[in-house]
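S1.2 Input.
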Amino acid sequence: MGSSLIGFWEAVGLKKFFTNIDTEGAGTLLPQTRFNYQSSYSDESALLRNSIVGGCVNWMARTFPEADLSVRRYDETTQQVVAVPDHPLRVLLNRPNPHFSGRLLRMAICTDFIVTGNAYVIKVRSADGTVVQLWWAPSSTLTPATTSRQHQRGYGSDEDNAFISHYDYSVGSSGASTQIPVEDVIHFRFGISPDDTKLGRSPLASVFRELYTDDEAASFTAALLRNSAIPGVVLAPGEGVGAVNEEDLNQIRDRWSDQFGSDNRGRLMVMRGATKVTTVSFSPSEMNLRELRRIPEERVSGALGVPAIVAGLGAGLDRSTFANMAEAREMAWESGLIPIQSLIADDLSSQLLGDFDDDETAEVYFDYQNVRVLQADATDMARRWRELVEGSIAKRSEARAALNLPVEPGDDVYLMPMNLIEIGGDAPPPAPEDDEKYDVVVDHDHHAHGHTSNGALDDPAEVAAALGDRG
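S1.3 Output.
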């Protein structure tokens, strides 16, 4: 855009709407516009100041720590994947450092992960190299870097240079940075950014225009209320009144502001001379931007996988009931939180678990046993496994492992109902129990004498003979 054109927009007071252009390329510009909406949300704090993002992200951050982080591995004895409650990594994740709890750390990771698409945790090692503390680092302070020009462009491979050689850590505006080795940083990514494959991409990147719309609507309404604390009117001399000098105009304006400003709105004012009053302000109904603000609420909640009703947004509360609220919360977990937790658990397994465990079958996972909203699913799962065990389809050990319960060696059995026997194949014939009172008796003599039988011992002679045979 030429300097003369920018000067024109500056002269008419509209420069800010036409100069906020992405100068590094059109990669961040949305279709059908040359205004770079992303630049208005260049940092995490700007995004969180939006009420829609704040509502959704705050709910996710509050709810995210309800699922505990734990470690599990394959057990050769039971041939099942079992939890390891005393694993040293699990202990560290619950108390990462002297100042942060495990829940607070997960809350910080969740917020940064959603808003920026990246989250970082720095490992602190002891003298022998053991990881003894974990510290969250804001995504604005760490940048993945490489010394290879090919890798700086996000492609290619050099044997002497890794995809990421180190992370640059910087705080403040001094420009000084410290290099942190890759092995001392846990980098969580939400997908992969097409602009820089070393970084993740925020799920909010596709709704910057909707966020800007919502913020502008809020600012517009607030400005009207702030500037129209008095009725927006034009006062003009009535018929027969001559010209009014500047001093009288200032006096009338100040008196009008005093009479109707702030808490004096709605009071009665009487003018001495003939005065024509023309109202130009908006009425409350004309200032209603409710429907305009519904669209950003729907788009943002959809991008984050959190139903608007769960975040307390108006777009969802219009149709909320106690019945569908429970279903909406479960949906928020399944479409919003659980996929994110799966990504974070995978990164912990690949970037941190190796410092504590060399078992390739071990993995970090989120335990949902204490998540109340998911207990209905847990109950259904327990019922299904009970049916499988009682039906002799699954072992008791398989059911306990699937339900994240401790598995003992004695659980590796099938439960067979007492009233069922196995027949066919190589199964041995069932032996009569000692406490059985009767055996199955076939009356061969009765058939030999030409008598017919219905297969039951209903003839007194037959019963006596049968009991006599038993001695």
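S1.4 Remarks. The chain has 15 helices and eleven strands.
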